[in-house]
Automatic annotation (TrEMBL):
This is ATPase ASNA1 homolog. The keyword Glycoprotein does not apply. Its main location: cytoplasm. It comes from Chaetoceros tenuissimus. GO terms for molecular function: ATP binding; ATP hydrolysis activity.
């Protein structure tokens, strides 16, 4: 490494995100259990040092922001203890849909909700994802009105993540379906609602149409913003194992296909990131010979793991090192839970680990 000039290579840290003040939307994604939530919380904590108002949003149905912060995080932005400018929220598409239905029934002035419920049920069963799309657009409307400087999204595992980008297509389909329903069953839902004391026939469909059109316009604007590298970037989190590196490559390719900027990879749970496997192995071989057999076995197991990790970290730098900021995060001896531990761990995202050790 010594005779190789690496001064032009991207820095091995997430400092570039802190420095890029234009960023409004930062996505954090990767396989389950690799450390997305931990990374989102740590990045949020670091951003909070330099931005006026920061929000972390979990869109992963398996929410664990509450576990990470050791604090109940609600459906609305919840201020995080130990910060005066960091909030977090967990969103739930089912909950949001129910609220939306209620608000539509309320604003129709009708006491009966059978019409709108039938319409909603028809739409959600024939257009998968419409509930998520509508709930996401509500979230974006809310978040945009609260003027956060930057929002960090703790996303669902890969596969799910890029669903966001298919929302425009889903909305087009939903609008088409609604038109079709209106033509075919126009009177029916109206009649049903009239029969149960509901308001004006057709009013529900029109209201729904209005909602969907509003949703479409928000989603289209949001997608443009997500495809603007000045505003949006995607941080890929992985661990140094075959499947995770493989998945990361798929994610990186998919992001590039959809025109979403990504130039950061966090490799989490790295054993002794500052040490070289070969040197460490030699040192251990020399210095553990007199230890009891069990102790030697424990060291050998650790070394085997370390060697495997180094192989995948090497592959990661070969694949991405020229274009991506590749940040190594150490495997700790304890879970990264609670504000103090998160704050402390988050320093590793910014201060590159000295690989020359
Ligand atoms: N570098 C690390 N060292 C030790 N424990 C970690 C590390 N990163 C994450 N963890 C722990 O691993 C578990 C899973 O991490 P989490 O961030 O929730 O993953 P994800 O959101 O990708 O499912 C959590 O209990 C977390 O505290
Ligand atoms: Mg998580």
């Amino acid at each position: 490494m010594a005779d190789f000039d690496d001064s032009d290579l991207p820095e091995p840290s997430l400092k570039n995100i802190i420095d890029q003040e234009s960023l409004q939307w930062v996505f954090v994604g990767g396989k389950g259990g690799v450390g997305k939530t931990t990374t989102s919380c740590c990045l949020g904590a670091q951003l909070a040092k330099y931005r006026k108002k920061v929000l972390i949003v979990s869109t992963d149905p398996a929410h664990n922001l509450s576990d990470a912060f050791c604090q109940k995080i609600g459906r609305e932005p919840t201020p995080i203890n130990g910060f005066d400018n960091l909030s977090a929220m967990e969103i739930d598409a089912n909950d949001d849909m129910e609220k939306m239905q209620e608000s539509m029934v309320e604003s129709s002035g009708s006491e009966d909700d059978s019409g709108i419920n039938a319409l909603m049920a028809e739409l959600t069963s024939s257009i998968p994802g419409i509930d998520e799309a509508m709930s996401f657009s509500e979230l974006m409307k809310q978040v945009q009105s609260l003027d956060y400087d930057v929002v960090v999204f703790d996303t669902a595992p890969t596969g799910h993540t890029l669903r966001l980008l298919s929302f425009p297509t889903i909305l087009e389909k939903a609008l088409g379906k609604l038109m079709e329903l209106k033509d075919r069953f126009g009177g029916l839902i109206g009649q049903a609602s009239a029969m149960f004391g509901g308001g004006n026939p057709g009013q529900m469909q029109d209201m729904m149409l209005g909602r969907l059109e509003e949703t479409r316009s928000i989603i289209n604007k949001v997608n443009d913003a997500f495809q603007d590298p000045e505003l949006t970037t995607f941080v890929c989190v992985c661990i140094p194992e075959f499947l995770s590196i493989f998945e990361t490559e798929r994610l990186v390719q998919e992001l590039s296909k959809f025109g979403i900027d990504s130039h950061n990879i966090v490799v989490n749970q790295v054993l002794f990131p500052e040490k070289d496997a070969e040197e460490l192995g030699e040192w251990l071989a020399e210095n553990t010979a007199s230890l009891p057999k069990e102790a030697q076995e424990i060291c050998a197991k650790m070394m085997a793991r370390k060697k495997m990790q180094d192989k995948y970290i090497g592959q990661c730098f070969d694949l991405y090192g020229d274009d991506f900021n590749v940040t190594l995060m150490p495997l700790l001896d304890y879970e990264v839970r609670g504000v103090d531990k998160l704050k402390q761990f988050s320093e590793n995202l910014i201060d590159p680990i000295d690989l020359e050790g």
